[in-house]
Design goal:
alpha+beta; Heat Shock Protein 90; 2 domains; five-stranded mixed sheet; 11 helices; 5 strands; rod-shaped
């Protein structure tokens, strides 16, 4: 049965038809043979019923997963035909029916078919004076085949479960891959935002200052100084972009303390930086997160409070973790500056995402003197 289910449906149907034809031929050639009178008439009627039910099973219900009437008819007609024509292979009808019952419905249904078929043979044995040993042998044989069908049913169920588990595993793997891609895309988007926002913010300030000097008719030296500063910022932005691309490729990166000092140095207004504790804790993702948060905080100061005094404090403690504070005093925005309107609001969200990924927290809000961004990362970030 398992082999037939694995075959092409047309091939399986041809095999069933061929099997039914061979069993019917053995009945036709047996003694007593089908006839229109006496015991031969009984054989003929039972053979017609068995073959009709066999055809229904072969052409219609072979693919069913529940018991159907044609299976019971094959079993009973085959058992009665076995009793009426003991020299034929009519018992094959009943053996197949018992097997089908075990495969479709389990052990109880298979044994039920075996018992009913055995009782039918026993009744025929009484009528035609057969030995009880033969009846018992047939009954046990039917029960054994039903048990075999039950085992095939279990194999089919296990195969279906294994296939379902494989499909679920593949779906879970695809979901993990999709999630990893989304996470990587978000990380790259944060890096791009941080780099462009930081570089372009400083460059925009220089260009706006240059434009103001031109409008005021300032001296060439002052204008040239601003242009040179804008060029330097553009060059630094390109270098930072190269470093970021190198980091994505696994190339060595600038140590976080040096990167933070460079960011503060690039800031136009008065700025202070203080690094305390164990700098070795600023490694890997922790160091990258600290640098990006400081970078984005300074960019926001440039946008919303140009020329404000800034203080950056980084404390790396082996017990408490890493704490970063970027605080600025209030300063009036440059009149006519469009820099505060730039960006899509992804900076603060990106900083929070970085902190959350490492099990930390980030807070940003006004103070009595200006604005403060605070980052805390635990000693051992959660995976």
């Amino acid at each position: 049965m398992l082999l037939l289910n694995a075959l092409n449906p047309r091939v399986a149907t041809l095999i069933r038809l061929l099997g039914g034809a061979l069993v019917s031929w053995s009945v036709v050639k047996s003694n007593p043979a089908p006839a229109f009178g006496g015991r031969g008439l009984v054989v003929l009627i039972l053979l017609v019923i068995a073959v009709a039910a066999w055809l229904v099973w072969t052409l219609w219900s072979a693919g069913e997963h529940a018991m159907t009437a044609d299976v019971y008819v094959i079993a009973i007609a085959g058992a009665a035909l076995t009793a009426a024509s003991p020299s034929s292979a009519a018992s094959a009808f009943t053996f197949v029916a018992a097997m089908v019952a075990g495969v479709r419905a389990g052990l109880l249904q298979g044994l039920g078919v075996a018992v009913v078929s055995g009782a039918t043979i026993a009744t025929g044995g009484i009528i035609y004076n057969h030995s009880a040993v033969g009846v018992l042998a047939y009954t046990l044989g039917f029960a054994a085949v039903a048990l075999g069908g039950t085992n095939l049913r279990q194999l089919n169920l296990r195969a279906d479960q294994a296939e379902l588990l494989l499909a679920q595993t593949q779906m879970a793997h695809e979901e993990q891959v999709r999630s990893a891609r989304l996470e990587e895309s978000a990380r790259i988007a944060r890096d791009i935002h941080d780099l462009l926002a930081h570089s372009l913010a400083g460059l925009t300030i220089q260009l706006e200052a240059t434009d103001a000097l031109l409008a005021q008719g300032a001296e060439t030296d002052a204008i040239r100084e601003r242009v040179q500063r804008a060029r330097a910022l553009a060059r630094e932005g390109l270098q930072e972009t190269r470093r970021a691309v190198g980091a994505l490729r696994g190339d060595p990166v600038v140590p976080p303390p040096e990167a933070i000092a460079a960011l503060v140095k690039q800031y136009e207004a008065p700025a202070q930086v203080k690094l305390t504790g164990d700098e070795t804790l600023l490694a890997g993702q922790v160091g990258e997160t600290v640098v990006r948060v400081v970078q984005e905080a300074l960019t926001n100061v440039r946008k919303h409070a140009p020329d404000a005094e800034v203080r950056v404090v980084v404390n790396a403690d082996a017990q408490e973790g890493v704490d970063v504070t970027v605080e600025n005093r209030a300063a009036a925005p440059v009149v006519g500056s469009g820099l505060a309107a730039t960006g899509g609001g992804y900076g603060l969200r990106g900083m929070r995402e970085r902190a959350t990924q490492l099990g930390g927290t980030l807070a940003a809000g006004p103070t009595s003197e200006g604005w403060r961004v605070s980052l805390h990362l635990p000693r051992e970030p959660r995976p």
